[in-house]
Amino acid sequence: MYKQSTGATRIAWALLAALAFAAGRSDAAAAAAPKAEVMHWWTSSSESAAVRKFADAYRAAGGVWGDTAIAGADQAKAVAINRIVGGNPPTAAQFNTTKQFRDLIDQGSLNNVDDIAVRDRWDQLMPQPVLDVIKVKGHFYAVPVDIHMSTWIWYSKAAFKKAGVAKEPATPDELFAALDKLKAAGLVGLAHGGQPWQENILFQAMLANVGGKDLYLQVLRDRSPKAINSEAFKKVLQAFKRLQGYVDAGSPNRNWNDATAMLISGKAGVQIMGDWAKGEFAAARQTAGKDFGCIPGLGANVPYLIQGDAFVFPKTNNPDAVRAQKLLATTMLTPGAQLEFNKIKGSLPILSNVDTSSMDVCAQAGMAILKDKSRAVGMIEVFLTPDQNGALQDVLTTYWNTRMPVERAQKGIASALQD
């Protein structure tokens, strides 16, 4: 009996030791896993679902994802910058693929990801307007994760049918004719949120579709006073202001996704918004080409205005943090994560070698356009500093909301865009 008890005791102790050893190994593995605090502003239903695909991919690769979501892009960027400057940075922070993070680069506040960019052939597989932003003095300082086009023209099939619009608009004149029919049918022609950045999008749409690529670049890239004061640019501003006649009284301060909901419900006919709006249609279980239409440009040569989202990696020499940053950069650009994220987000994969055949008709149209590299042009913030863009928005919003003469708007824009 004593020997049997002793044997059972030994077995019990052996089991406990084995469990303790296994737990210790598990704890050690958890401690060794790359931990990343990822700061972003994706808080709408579709955006949250999309970013979870990145989180899932990171966890599957052995990392620990810490989600810091902050509502509002401007607020999120401000918090990220304050934490970086204050010495308590997140592992990664979201910015747009624009000049928003150039000051951080110039101040030496970011780690580069040159090894990953070279390994994955970013120079060959990413659009040039994106490379022009993320690559500074030969180094890659951000990981772009998508391509957004800012000025898609979305329309409700049900609203078009009710208003008797039988043909998808293919020119600016046809767009305004469709808006007239929608208004006459008692519908809201243009679903719009009266916020400066949304008016900025309407302006870009008219500059690209009415003015064309050459004028677009002369105004925004070259900031040419001659181009800004030209008759051609005056026509662009007049078309922009004309759109105001088709919005409803509830437009001021409306969020973009609430404007998209007006198309989803059939209360409005058209919205001019980036392709992130497609995520809202998807969340409402609406199908591109069946329930809603998407127009990338009113003409075969209209520039495809691109930007997107990117993550920067604050400067650190901590090897664990650097390992977490590199794992993030790698997993976010794997084909599977790219495809699943962008399907939900409404955007296109940033790498041209990702198989997009399973994506919707709007994405297919965008990918087809990007095969013609001459049509890929940076959106407004690719060319302007945040200060210049803010000054331009002030002029555009004043022009939109008051009786400012178009000539005064031209002069205001010329002044806003000077260095």
From TrEMBL:
InterPro entries: Bact_solute-bd_prot1 (IPR050490), SBP (IPR006059). Residues 1-22 form the signal peptide. Keywords: Signal, Transport. Its main location: periplasm. GO terms for cellular component: periplasmic space. It is found in: Periplasm. Belongs to the bacterial solute-binding protein 1 family. Part of a binding-protein-dependent transport system for a sugar. This is Probable sugar-binding periplasmic protein. It comes from Duganella alba. The lineage of its organism: Bacteria, Pseudomonadati, Pseudomonadota, Betaproteobacteria, Burkholderiales.
